[in-house]
Amino acid sequence: QSALTQPASVSGSPGQSITISCTGTSSDVGGYNYVSWYQQHPGKAPKLMIYEVSNRPSGVSNRFSGSKSGNTASLTISGLQAEDEADYYCSSYTSSSTRVFGTGTKVTVL
Amino acid sequence: QVQLVESGGGVVQPGRSLRLSCAASGFTFSSCGMHWVRQAPGKGLEWVAVISYDGSDRYYADSVKGRFTISRDNSKNTLYLRMNSLRAEDTAVYYCAKDLSPHHGMDVWGQGTTVTVSS
């Protein structure tokens, strides 16, 4: 159950778009369309931003979008805003019916 | 409103046990799978365990298998995590989270309860 691989940090200026990658294996990310993404501000509980690769829960801005190709999933934030500065984690269902999180990415708005 | 409230955290010596609880309200608890997720100080999220809506299926992370037990009481709308043989590396904030049933994703999270394993 190795953690999914994410870049440690990504940054962008307000209004720009950024993309966070999440790389796993054929036993997790590549094998199922069950990738979700979470936003976590310091000292707060995580918040679901995307589920099942590309679906947004009610109330989540359409500036957040998800996709997947092979063993790598991606989260794109368009029109970057100061409030988007946070840690982001991907997660996937696995072939063992467990779940695994990514290593986490710190997003900085310059 | 939909809410999850964890309790039961504290300071415990290595090798001892602790039971966490998660009280659910505002949704049909008995219809949803539930998870425990933890976060060590300054570290990322680590998935711990999941239980199906009726308790018939349970799965664990390798790091806790054989030491932790997830359970639920649907009559009390409460999720539990029994933690035995605690180690220093189990020190973390423990969150309970609701499955976005029937979809995959954790759509509601509690505020977390802190477990510190130290002599």
UniProtKB/TrEMBL annotation, chain A:
UniProt record, GO biological process: adaptive immune response
Keywords: Adaptive immunity, Cell membrane, Disulfide bond, Immunity, Immunoglobulin, Immunoglobulin domain, Membrane, Secreted
Location of this chain's protein in the cell: Cell membrane; Secreted
Residue ranges of domain Ig-like in the record: 1-101
Pfam families to which the protein is assigned, alphabetical: V-set
Superkingdom of origin: Eukaryota
Entry's transmembrane regions: none
GO cellular component, one term: immunoglobulin complex
Assembly and interaction partners: Immunoglobulins are composed of two identical heavy chains and two identical light chains; disulfide-linked.
Name of the protein this chain belongs to: IGL c3563_light_IGLV2-14_IGLJ1
